[in-house]
Amino acid sequence: MEQIDFALALAKTHELLSNSRSRTIIGIAGKPGAGKSQLSAFLMANLPADLVALVPMDGFHLSNEELEELGRRDRKGAPDTFDVEGYVNLLTEIRSNNNDVIRYPIFHREIEASIADEGLLASDVKLVITEGNYLFHDQDGWEEISPLLDHRWFVGIDDSLRLDRLVARHHQFGKDLAAAHAWATGSDERNAQIVEASKFRADLIVLNQ
User: Fold this and answer.
1) What is the number of structural domains in the chain?
2) What φ, ψ does residue 11 adopt, rounded to 5°?
3) Which of 4, 97, 123, 126 places its Cα 20 to 30 Å from the Cα of 53?
4) In terms of pTM, does the model score above 0.85?
């Protein structure tokens, strides 16, 4: 499978933007802490803001209240802790509706919750970047996501660096260091194995170095 760096990913994105006649969706997947948001932010900062939109999967986290009721609060971030149907419906609309403004939820780590309809996708957007762990997963409704993507990129990173970044992120957002390490090596690592198993469905690997 082809491996490229961030700079070449940007060049490919510019090419897609120039050559695509219809709206194009790039799906970026990767393990927790791999740098999906980092790559997405890099691309967005270097592309025409009026023609490109970022629509993260994380906006479809189930609320903490719903997770408590389902008994899944301690596994937040696992495949069954998202509104997969809502995400599928959004991507379907993005593909089919070029006439209206499309609203979508955005997740905020500082409050561990999503704000509905905070994101706005204008009708003249030509390129949509969507990123998340399970874009290439093939169970429990996630299998409907991959066919809605025009391009599938997987972010690759050294696992020791990824773990360090995860621990630091959890600590930044309120966990003490012991709890941050336990979550990164426990729940996050189980999710990482699921994501790794879907890697073969990617078109190329974008290396985060």
Assistant:
1) 1
2) -60, -40
3) 4
4) yes
